Amino acid sequence: MVRSDRATSGVMFTLDTQSGNDNVIMINAIFGLGENIVGGRVNPDEFFVFKPTLQANKSAIIKRQLGSKEMKMIYDDKLKTLNVSTTLNERARFTLNDDEVMTLARYALTIEEHYAMAMDIEWAKDTAEGEFYIVQARPETVYSRQLHGKKIQSIKKYIIKEDTSKRKQLLSGLAIGEKIGFGVVKVIANLSEASRFNAGEVLVTDITDPDWEPLMKKAAAVVTNKGGRTCHAAIVAREIGVSTIVGTSNAMQVLQEGSEVTVCCAEGETGYVYQGQIDFEIESIDLQDLQEPKTKLFMNVGNPEQAFGLAAIPNQGVGLARMEFIINNHIKAHPMALYDMQQGRYVKGSEKIEQLMQGFADPLSFFCRQALSRHRYDCCRVLS
Q1: How many Cα neighbours within 13 Å face the side chain of 26?
Q2: CA quadruple 243, 150, 46, 40: dihedral sign
Q3: What is the pLDDT of residues 17-61, one digit of tens each?
Q4: CA–CA separation, 382 vs 66, rounded Å?
């Protein structure tokens, strides 16, 4: 009923679905009708908004990540739905501008305050009216019971005990949860092959829908070609607690059936599939009896993507955030190279940098906005 076929639609959560940190609002967005984002057929754009800054009526966007958005669902002349390929321009730009992200975030905050719990919200923008509509709001299903006055009792940390840079990395995607799974790859193209799948194997497929849940419950891990953090595969994976990576684009082509792999979601927002079995251990931390020391404890954060997860441990904030790590791991381009490109000078490897800059107006805008986002993600009371 909301004509978002020529505009945008998406899903937002009033917490970080990866760590359960309730200081943020996570927004996923695509072009066209929302069925593709819920069904995990499209890798969406992702935005994070920091609640305390939003409540102070200040600019609060702490992350912008461009998705591939390779298709969109629209209506044809007979008002029947069909999927069409997005243009190169659509793939290279964000679905929402900053004002629109902030508008949606304010809606999400109002809804959460009304229901007094973490919420899973679907939204759509009407093409003709240019207005945003909320089309569904329900309680978030994993962390909502632990928030709003109910403390998390314990956390489990999956700790890698080897240098993964020396291990062959097969592919990467969006990490769902923070676990590690190991098993033999089984590539399942559709549910007619479900009988081939055995408990303890790594399920590799294109996308999942509710009919895939029995297979996911038996899997040691799940890897999909498509999907974002708010798709069906991601939501079910969080509920059943299976290590899952979505949005890899080419898992069915890269992962060879019968090979042994480790699906690792313990290194931040990005999940990695490694060849063979990596060495890791599971550490359980009881938070009920964990007392804060007399000495004020500040975190030394080298990986911004772990900040929300670290927030569960008693602390007074961030004592040291490594800006050079942020540039190296997240901006991925040398500041002087970006400066030279801004001045119109030739830079070796500029083609790769231009790919990183997709969605941003110019090198200066890319560096400043990404650096500000990542620095906030690290430092602006994320751990408070």
Answers
A1: 22
A2: positive
A3: 877 888 899 999 999 999 999 888 899 999 999 999 899 888 889
A4: 22
Least confident segment among 74-88, 127-141, 209-223, 370-384: 370-384
As a whole number of Å, the end-to-end CA separation of the chain is 41
In sequence order, the 6+-apart residues with CB closer than 8 A to the CB of 220 are 181, 182, 183, 200, 201, 202, 242, 243, 263
Is the CB of residue 237 less than 8 Å from the CB of residue 244? yes
For residue 82, the tally of other CB atoms under 10 A from its CB is 11
Q: Where are the alpha helices (DSSP H) in the chain?
A: 35-38, 51-55, 88-91, 98-115, 213-218, 232-240, 251-254, 307-310, 323-326, 335-342, 350-356, 363-379
Burial class, 130, CB count within 10 angstroms (exposed 0-12 / middle 13-18 / buried 19+): exposed
Q: pLDDT for 257-286, tens place per residue?
A: 999 999 999 988 899 999 999 999 998 877
